[in-house]
Specification:
- With 215 residues, the chain is mainly β.
- The chain has a single domain (2-212), classed as Alpha-ketoglutarate-dependent dioxygenase AlkB-like (Jelly Rolls, Sandwich).
- It has helices spanning 32-45, 96-108; strands spanning 14-18, 21-24, 62-67, 70-74, 77-81, 83-84, 89-90, 118-125, 130-133, 145-151, 154-158, 168-172, 177-180, 189-191, 205-212.
- The strands form 4 sheets. Strands 1-2-13-10-15-8-3 form a 7-stranded antiparallel beta sheet, covered by helices on one side.
- A hairpin with a 2-residue loop joins strand 4 (70-74) and strand 5 (77-81).
- The longest helix is centred in the N-terminal third of the chain and has 14 residues, at 32-45.
- It binds 2 DNA strands through residues 51, 53-55, 57-61, 63, 71, 73, 75-78, 122, 129-135, 157, 163-164, 167, 190-192.
Length: 215
DNA sequence: AAGTGGCT
DNA sequence: GGAT
């Protein structure tokens, strides 16, 4: 945990950035070592790949998953799949460190008993981005989304229910967690192109973990 | 099927 | 279609 050097009290790092959406600054830092180790394990079993959108264009972000389902995109559309098309096996199991972090973060944001069954791992090289979209391939929108930022910083845009709604922008750095649910669950969001840089632990990349109850 | 992308 |  982060402690205030003067008071010795844990600093409150929770900020409601829009109704239902919370920024938990540095929340993942205590889990850092275990998370990085477990990410390596998942990637060894299910290598990240640049999925193709239904429109036929490759995404700039490389993606893999773990848990009971993984988010996939191909010519047939966006969906969750229980199997990795590359290995034709089930996705790797979700590491306990992933589940615990996601559940704790959701609780801290006021979403009790979050039980993610899918963790999407998005690898951003410098210049990679994620266009404005909604997370809407899940079955149950009563469960929040938990997003963990590692490595290089990113600018996160969060809007509303309509694509054309005004967006706020939030700088996300290594260890930050964003949780959105309730009224914000279907809000459009995006990541601007990652700027040139080198992170001391992760080098020239940003890794994002996104947790969902997909099934 | 696709605006999770690329163009202006 | 809008932001950059």
């Amino acid at each position: 945990m982060n402690f205030d050097l003067f008071s010795g009290e844990p600093q409150q790092q929770r900020q409601e950035i829009l109704p239902g959406a919370f920024l938990l600054r540095g929340f993942a830092l205590p889990f850092e070592n275990e998370l990085l180790q477990d990410i390596q394990g998942v990637i060894a079993e299910a290598p990240p790949r640049n999925m193709v959108t239904p429109g036929g264009l490759p995404m700039s972000v490389a993606t893999t998953s773990c848990g009971d389902a993984g988010w996939v995109s191909d010519a047939y559309g966006y969906r969750y799949s229980k199997r990795d098309a590359l290995s034709r096996k089930n996705w790797p199991a979700m590491p306990c460190s992933f589940f615990d972090l996601a559940r704790n973060a959701a609780t801290t944001a006021g979403y009790k008993n979050f039980s993610p069954d899918s963790a999407l791992i998005n690898i951003y090289k410098v210049g990679a981005k994620m266009s404005l979209h909604q997370d809407k391939n899940e079955r149950d929108f009563s469960q929040p989304i938990v997003s963990v930022s590692l490595g290089l910083p990113a600018t996160f845009l969060l809007g509303g229910l309509r694509r054309e709604d005004k967006t706020i922008r939030v700088q996300l750095v290594h260890g930050d967690v964003v949780v959105w649910g309730g009224a914000a669950r279907l809000f459009f969001h995006s990541i601007l192109p990652i700027k040139v840089g080198v992170h001391p632990l992760l080098g020239k990349q940003r890794i994002n973990l996104t947790f969902r109850k997909a099934l």
